[in-house]
Amino acid sequence: RAHLTSPGGYRFYVEEMNTRALRVLAYENRLRKAILRKEFIPFFQPLIDVKTGEIAAMEALVRWRHPRLGLVWPGEFIPVAEEAGLIGDICHQVLYETCMTAKRWMEAGYGAIPMAVNISWRQFAQPERLLQLMSDVLKETGTPPELIELELTESSVMEEPDSAIRTLNDLREFGVMASIDDFGTGYSSLSYLKRLPISKLKIDRAFINEVTHNERDAAIVDAIIRLAQALGLKTVAEGIETQEQFEFLKEKGCDLGQGFLFSRPVPAEDMEKILQEGGFSDFRVLQ
Ligand code: C2E
Ligand code: MG
Ligand code: MG
Ligand code: MG
């Protein structure tokens, strides 16, 4: 920034901007190639029924399987993909693989396991495209829409709540339900929250992290669970890492739990082994 005030600084600044723009452009091109090569795959993390310890659902979390770099995490490429308008293409691959996996597991006799897929605010802002994508992939794969649930952040939904209610109603009519992800970290209008046709609130990991050490976090988690109960919604606690956190949530009446205590997100084949072994009813800690 100091360069801005020095002689010739303006030029330096422009060049720096160009370098950055070129870097972003190069990254976007790599993403485009990766889309063509179908390098985006879902990993799966189970949602556990807190009362029974059984697997109640799965969340699909995208990974970029790069031929040279190995696995690339969504935190790195999702923002670039959103900016470049490529998030829909990536979602298509994740949704397709998730549907095929759900079908395979159903045919293998593991039952109809509900699958949650994350949807970017960018996609939710274009409801026609989102609905088209959903209906295309469900038809293509022959998946019952009831098996797929969408995860949306508070801000995706609360940005334009009236339009969000319409979109969620359209999706519901179609057979697809939605949950609010990372609840408590964005802003929610309670008057809209009560009108949203959703099925679950997912309590953000930030509150679960210290829930057994921090009274305020404990109070917030307790309040979210009771709010959800009053609104007829199920609660999911994200990021459960310890037995103590799990016991706390169980005592407070949280419905579902997700976190490293049960399993990290793993490839479909690894999750299939867990299903073969009968899931988590013995609360076995993996990895
Ligand atoms: P999210 O949907 O809130 O997913 C939960 C994140 O927490 C995942 O990170 C998961 O690996 C991590 N996690 C789960 N349990 C624990 C735990 O016990 N401890 C800790 N420390 N972390 C835990 P991940 O896979 O890196 O995904 C990050 C975010 O990227 C997701 O947050 C979601 O917002 C986004 N994302 C993932 N897949 C997709 C996708 O297919 N499409 C879109 N648009 N976004 C996605
Ligand atoms: Mg999620
Ligand atoms: Mg979350
Ligand atoms: Mg998150």
TrEMBL record:
One of its GO terms (molecular function) is cyclic-guanylate-specific phosphodiesterase activity. Residues 24-279 form the EAL domain. It comes from the Bacteria. This is Diguanylate cyclase. It comes from Terasakiella brassicae. The lineage of its organism: Bacteria, Pseudomonadati, Pseudomonadota, Alphaproteobacteria, Rhodospirillales.
